[in-house]
Amino acid sequence: MIRTLLEDNEERFLAPYASKSRDTRGRKYPEEKHPYRTDFQRDRERIIYSSAFRRLEYKTQVFVNHEGDHYRTRLTHSIEVAQIARSIARALRLNEDLAEAISLAHDLGHTPFGHSGEEKLKELMQKVGGFEHNRQTLRVVDLLEERYPDFPGLNLTYEVREGIIKHETIYDKPASGEFNPEEQPTLECQAVSFADEIAYNCHDVDDGLYSGILAEEQLEELDIWRQLKQKAGKVYLQLPERGRRKLIVKLLINELVTDLVSESGRKMSHHGIQSPEEIRSAGEGLLTFSKEKGKQNSQLRIFLFANMYTHHKMLRMSDKAKRTIEELFEAYRSNHNLLPPWVQERIDGDHPMVVIGDYIAGMTDRFALQEHKKIYDPFERV
């Protein structure tokens, strides 16, 4: 009965184009409805309790885990994305539970060492279709997580699974597969894609300044940084460096989210969108920045590539990460007996390179480094 009331509240308070949990396209394996949780709330909790979610704590966002305790990890990034996505969803009267579930799941398939690890694993697995972390995330929730006796994976709803595979940013290239490529994803999925980009751009600025790789003076070349600094006024000048950094990053997130909500609301009103079906058949995503903020966000992204991601310290970390992944992969490929017994058992039912890819992709940074030492360092205890 409580679930029914929650579903009734969605019908009453959410926008007509929001996804309603009562209207889900369902799960691969039929299950009885929960008495006091909606389907999307249930999905969110299944993701939080998964082992893949816990491992995000020790997976790289930008800085490798042992570089310091104050940098973002995949776990803190996912939580920050969920917070931003919920804010967007609430302002647009979308389904916050669906947006949060997609947010918390969107990086479950990421390798250790961030995008460097993914690039190397993609190269090593070319013969079996390569590697892409959205696709791997879907593989995690559909197959690799083992929590329930009645089905493999987490048996999430269609909408959450679609939100994972159609998650789209500059780093994510969706391949829809079983999910109709002609259909646009839900607005909740689109909100997560924007929340992800806002989170990693803004928080990479924060981490870059904290690390010393970026300097405030460099950021003066950005229109949006200068505008926000002027908006902060005297308060900005009176703060110490750490306080200035946190203030501007907070204002930066607020500026981008506010613009996205305002412009997206205007666009949907202009098109007269009245249902989720119209969202899916729109031919393009309907969440968007204004022209000015879209340009400023692109400038920020280009700035980070030029001044942070290609910094010699970052490139050194990337090179070490790729070497670690490659040497682990080659060791396991040449001798399957180096794999744990439970991993070896899977080789009978799948291609060895796919099984090895699953195993390495599931590693945390520190576990991958420990495994590398155990295999290659003769003085390390195995």
Largest sheet: none
Unreliable segments (pLDDT under 50, ≥5 consecutive)?
A: none
Please state the CA-atom Rg, rounded to the nearest Å. Answer: 22 Å
Q: What is the percent of helical residues? A: 55-70%
What's the total helix number?
Answer: 19
Order of H and E elements: HHHHHHHHHHHHHHHHHHH
Distance between the termini: 54 Å
Strand content: under 5%
Q: Can you tell me the CATH class of the largest domain? A: Mainly Alpha
By secondary-structure content and strand pairing, the structural class works out as mainly alpha
Q: What is the total tally of β strands?
A: 0
| CATH topology-level name of the largest domain | Hypothetical protein af1432
Count of distinct structural domains: 2
The outline comes out as: globular
In the CATH hierarchy, the architecture of the largest domain is Orthogonal Bundle
State the CATH superfamily name of the largest domain. Hypothetical protein af1432
Mean pLDDT, rounded to whole units? Answer: 93
Task: Produce a short descriptive summary.
It is built from 19 helices and no strands.
